[in-house]
Description:
Elements: H1 2-18, H2 22-33, H3 39-45, H4 52-92, H5 110-124, E1 128-129, E2 135-136, H6 138-141, E3 161-163, E4 166-168, H7 173-182, E5 187-196, E6 208-218, H8 223-237, E7 244-251, E8 254-263, E9 280-289, H9 291-296, E10 305-312, H10 313-321, H11 334-337
Parallel strand pairs: 1-5
Antiparallel strand pairs: 2-4, 3-4, 5-6, 6-10, 7-8, 8-9, 9-10
Amino acid sequence: xxxxxxxxxxxxxxxxxxxxxxxxxxxxxxxxxxxxxxxxxxxxxxxxxxxxxxxxxxxxxxxxxxxxxxxxxxxxxxxxxxxxxxxxxxxxxxxxxxxxxxxxxxxxxxxxxxxxxxxxxxxxxxxxxxxxxxxxxxxxxxxxxxxxxxxxxxxxxxxxxxxxxxxxxxxxxxxxxxxxxxxxxxxxxxxxxxxxxxxxxxxxxxxxxxxxxxxxxxxxxxxxxxxxxxxxxxxxxxxxxxxxxxxxxxxxxxxxxxxxxxxxxxxxxxxxxxxxxxxxxxxxxxxxxxxxxxxxxxxxxxxxxxxxxxxxxxxxxxxxxxxxxxxxxxxxxxxxxxxx
Length: 340
């Protein structure tokens, strides 16, 4: 048996020197230490056939051989692991002096940019920003804004009704009512948000769009305050050369009411394709708050007056950037969005 152990030792080292991978070392371990067919395992099982006088000496020799071969396997495994790691590092090394691959950076959507600019201007004028639910009741969306039950604006052809008692808000004016219910004058707020109307999508209409509505209430507010506020805002948003005019109009929740136009920034009022040869571009609606609205929020109309206005963010973006189709804002076309 001692001769067999020497033969196993010599054979082991010959085969171990040929192993070039951890997998080959694992196979070598199995061939010598496997529980059923390992060469050294089988040799140690033969100890039971050795005479008691020789068993101690041979057993000691086999145990020392086992420890020697196991230590050799662990040492060679460690060497191979270091070699594998070095080879991997060499193959994956990066030349940090080479220029990197620049990734395109995103930016705010043009509607977000315009909305933020509008908010910043009014915030600088002392207005606070208020928010409210997109699913509203007919009371806040219509009745409290002096829009009676049989008014055409409440028709199902114009409004998305969720149920008899719920609808998708058609403007952000309900936020004004909710704010007046909880706060007393003086009040200066803007209400930006998404609104919904039953419009067929085309170049100038969308069933979903964005508004910023404003409200100021205090003692002694006049139409002159409304004009001054909107003129300041429009000049700040478009340019100092912008001219502003007010035309009589009608809205249920304001009286008197007005449509607000700005001078065409392309032709400077001379007439062109953008302004349809009129020299003016309509941009928003406004007016003095109807006293009937104050009655719903328990404001004394004899003491307080106020003005309100509504701005379409898509409309302002289209005018400012000369965009002819509102659908471009919603199509996620990077060729369009990358221009802003």
